[in-house]
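thread: overnight batch results

M.L. [08:02]
morning all. the overnight job finished for the chain we discussed friday. pasting input first so we're all looking at the same thing
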Amino acid sequence: MEFVSIRIITGDVARLVGFYERATGATAAWATEDFAELRTTGATLAIAGTRTVPLFAPGSARPAANDSVITEFLVDDVDRVHEDLTAFVTDFVAGPTTMPWGNRSLLLRDPDGNLVNFFAPVTPAAKARLAGGE
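M.L. [08:03]
and the structure it wrote out:
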């Protein structure tokens, strides 16, 4: 099995796609006005409108209702990402912080209130974990 994507359901696909394009530098591939994907080397972030939910199971997902998932992006320099996003992001949860497990992290909310973490391993142990060495 291979993990390939996570999908966010939103009431405003264009707004959320625009946010993630600007925040990540990736360009979305649009399949329909209700579905777009931002592909990275490791996984894909799919963004879909509420009209797609009934195709799976009516009422199974609600936009802007996430209180438990954090979407994470590996970056080279968390502090630089913070600088780049400061004029654009309106809801920083925590500024650049080095976590006890050795990652430098920047936590924010996207326009729908979903948590997003930009992180970079900064200690030798964290770098080894990312490389599969631990």
